[in-house]
Write a structure and sequence with these properties.
Blueprint: E1 2-4, H1 5-10, E2 12-17, E3 23-28, E4 37-40, E5 56-59, E6 61-63, H2 70-83
Parallel strand pairs: 1-6
Antiparallel strand pairs: 2-3, 4-5
Length: 84
């Protein structure tokens, strides 16, 4: 699932499609890392010989912004300076 960089840093929500085909809104916690797994309780495959559903998992793929304006590049440079 692709998550914009800003949502990974600040938190947000993305729409995803479950294996059932149903669309849901997934909340992304602030500070989510690339590759992190988010558990979707009861949204996975049916459990063998049971009526319950297993858990599903979504792996976060942080998507970097493309085509930054000069102002956006300037702001990222300022953030880098603040972090060093």
């Amino acid at each position: 699932m692709g998550v914009p960089l800003y949502d990974a840093i600040l938190g947000g929500a993305v729409n995803i499609t479950l294996i059932s085909g149903r669309q849901v809104e997934l909340r992304i916690p602030a500070g989510t890392s690339n590759g992190q797994l988010i558990r979707l309780g009861g949204q996975g495959m049916p459990r063998l010989n049971q009526s319950a559903q297993g858990d599903g998992y979504a792996r976060v793929k942080v998507v970097l912004p493309e085509g930054l304006s000069d102002r956006e590049k300037e702001l990222f440079a300022t953030l880098r300076e603040l972090r060093t």
